[in-house]
Amino acid sequence: MDFTFTEEQRAAVEAARAVFADVAPDGVPSPALTPGAVADDFDRALWSRLAASDLLGLVLAEEHGGSGLDAIALCLVLREASKVLARVPLLEHCATAMAVQAHGSPELAADLLPGAARGDLVLTAAPHGRSGHDPAELAVVARPDGDTWTLEGTQTAVAWAHGADWIAVPAHTGEGDAVLALVPRGAEGLALAEQVSTNGERYAELALDGVRVAPTHLIDDPAAWERLRQLLATGTCALALGLGEAVLTMTGQYTGKREQFGFPVATFQAVAVQAADRYIDLRAMEVTLWQAAWRLDAATGGAGGPLPSAGDVAVAKIWASEGVRRVVQTAQHLHGGFGADTDYALHRYHAWAKQLELQLGPAAAHEEALGDLLAAHPLA
């Protein structure tokens, strides 16, 4: 078996590294020193460079102006983005575009995807529901209303909503069916309330009061929301991996230079053992991430497995949610008081790691979901 990445996937990584090479994690005010959001908008200059490098259309078909790559390629790019705390809606944009491409009507694809590939249109998604705990599709009800659909409900913690052009809103029809509506940010009846994330980014609570959606902009295939949900979760695992790798590198560099009793602290057994444990966490996060991303692509191609792809995504989330927390906590411990210095970037990575951990949810919940899948799909 060959587990190496394809030439196209490696080329995407090289392009991403070139784009992110000049990105500074401290390019905006510190979230620890800012009472509100650290900026009103995402990094538009970086967004333009991503578009110019064809990375925004990475996962779209050539007919829409994309490169025709897969979820693995997207996760590889996201991994590089999080190493520098890139402030762009790359995950939400690409995941939404993939869901539209796979499940949307030809009219919807033609309306959104070419602009999304060029970066002219910015897409985001509302995956957290009303509270972040209940299924997101239950927070909004979609009702047929003549030749349109009407949306009523609330979605919280919607990333980059103030700067997006279109928002993918999961909803239910009242009959147990999940649908996915593409709503323009300026739609009548849609109100955005200001929210601030743990890492200081500007989020929004969406209040939908009689928002009308054309039939072509509502995807009634239940697999659309499920695919978008799994893509967002797997992409968040990729962000956690890249962030953790950057933090462990920072820790290695610091402990290699910081001396105590005349020796670098990295040579002390207690320090080396803690760093080794976190390295093991990262390798487990990595292997479960690639398994989940591969299953998402394989499921699209018709390949199955002993469990649905949701099982692989759950395993990746278990490792990512706990692993990224352990990595940054150990980093803070090994840095001593220097890790809390707001002139040093580690505290920013800690805030982003906590935001990713909250987005992923507790490992215990994913373990319960995995148990339910195992009970429903006994392994032979």
Instruction: Count the beta strands.
Output: 10
What assembly state would you assign to the polypeptide chains in this entry? single chain
**Termini separation:** 23 Å
Basic shape: globular
How would you write the strand order of the largest sheet? 1-4-5-8
Question: Helix proportion of residues, in percent?
Answer: 40-55%
Q: Major sheet, described briefly? A: 4 strands, mixed
SSE run: HHHHHEEEEEEEEHEEHHHH
Q: Any idea what the radius of gyration is?
A: 21 Å
Assign the structural class, choosing from mainly alpha, mainly beta, alpha/beta, alpha+beta, or little secondary structure. Answer: alpha+beta
Portion in beta strands = 15-25%
Average per-residue pLDDT, rounded, comes to 94
- Poorly predicted runs: none
Number of helices: 10
